[in-house]
Design brief:
- The chain is α+β, with helices and mostly antiparallel strands.
- It has 2 domains: 76 residues, 2-Layer Sandwich (Alpha-Beta Plaits), CATH 3.30.70; 101 residues, no CATH class.
- Helix content is 20%, strand content 26%.
- It is built from 4 helices and 10 strands, in the order αβαββαβββαββββ.
- The strands form 2 sheets. A 5-stranded antiparallel beta sheet has the order 2-3-1-5-4. Strands 7-8-6-10-9 form a 5-stranded antiparallel beta sheet, with helices on one face.
- This is CCHC-type domain-containing protein.
- InterPro entries: At4g02000-like, DUF4283, Zn_knuckle_CX2CX4HX4C.
- It comes from Daucus carota subsp. sativus (Carrot).
Amino acid sequence: MANASMGKKVTQEYAKLTIDEEGEEGLILEEPPANHVGVDYSLCLVGSFLSDRKVNFSAMKDTLASIWRPVKGVYMEETSYPNLFIIKFFHKLDMQRVLDDGPWTFNQQVFLLKKLEGEEQLSELKISELFIWLQIYDLPIGFHSEVIFKSIGNYVGKFLSSDPKNLNGIWRNYQRIKVAIDVNKPLKSKMRIKRAGGDWLWINFKYERLPSFCFFCGVIGHSEKFCESLFDEKK
């Protein structure tokens, strides 16, 4: 009986204890931790599908590896989080070519890629940018400059780079820039531009290798048949 009474008292005392999980104290690193696993994070990408459907990892891995054909090889592995994958390259040129030549799809599902920095928490990681080449039409000759290209890119999404051929010759049918677009926002199809004191002019956009998108709301990742906005009576 004494042991039972003592055990009950201990249990009651433990019940009074609380753990302050959000206190001010914590571990502060004075320098980056040593990389004991030997992984070069600068050669790693994290990938996610713009869909909640389950992906056949084995088929996806084999298909993308055969399309990418990295000279020095590539290794992919699943994480414990749905449709989130780690992709390790063995040379920076292979990795950069995959980033430059996108966007990529598997079974008509958009595959979003992001460089792995090494300090992200995968449970909190949100990949929402799609790298894509944008064609700019009807841009007047007097507006052909890297400054203008960058401004246009930042209007559409986030400017990454421009085609070196954009400024070659007197006239081109269109200019090309690489942009990162937010897949949660509608695509932009045109833009107004003018010089101070001049008239407004419209320039038009076309996206290269654009994945499936909704003509109703303009967002990538679904067709108008499955658009939630279509069921909004106010719209």
